[in-house]
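your task:
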Amino acid sequence: MFYIRKLSKKSNLFKIRDAASNSIIEADVLKQELGTTRNTLSFWKSEDITDLKNAMKAILLSTTSIETSQFIVVNDEMLDKYGIERNYEEKGITGYRGYENLHVNLCNLDYGKMGAMLNIIKEISGEKAYIPELKREEVKRYIIEVKRDGLLDEENLRPELKAAIDKYCPLTA
C-alpha cells in the first residue's frame, strides 16, 4: 500500500532533505508539514504508486486553494521499518464523493516516530515517483474531472476552495 500527503510548501521538502541533522530542521517546517492531531498524521492511500490520481483528487478537494501542489508518498515497508502504525477507521473529509475511505491516519506518533518521518522524507526526496508534483493547471484539470463525473461533494468543500472552484474550474473552458 502507498500513502500520500500534500505538503504545504514545496520548499519544505528541500529544507528537510538538505538538513545535516533532524535536530536543526526549523520547528515551523515540522508544524507545517507534520502537524499532528491526537498524535495522528493524515494521509490518503493508493494501491499503486503509478496511479495516485484518486488519492490526489481526495487530497486536493480537502484543501483551501487551487495551487501547484507538492506531495510525498510513503509505503508500508518504509513505515514498518520505523514501527509506524496505520489506522483506516476515520473517514476523510473531502469534496470527492465516494472516496472518503481512502483516508488513513498514521497513529500513536511520538517524537521518535516524527523523527522517523523526517528520515523517510529524506530517503524519498531523490526519487521522483515518491515526490510527485501537480502544477496549478493539472490541479484545475483534476477538479474539473471530478465535477464532470458528478462526484463533487460541495457540502464537504471548505468555503475558500468552493469559491476558487466556482471561479477557476468551469466545466466548459
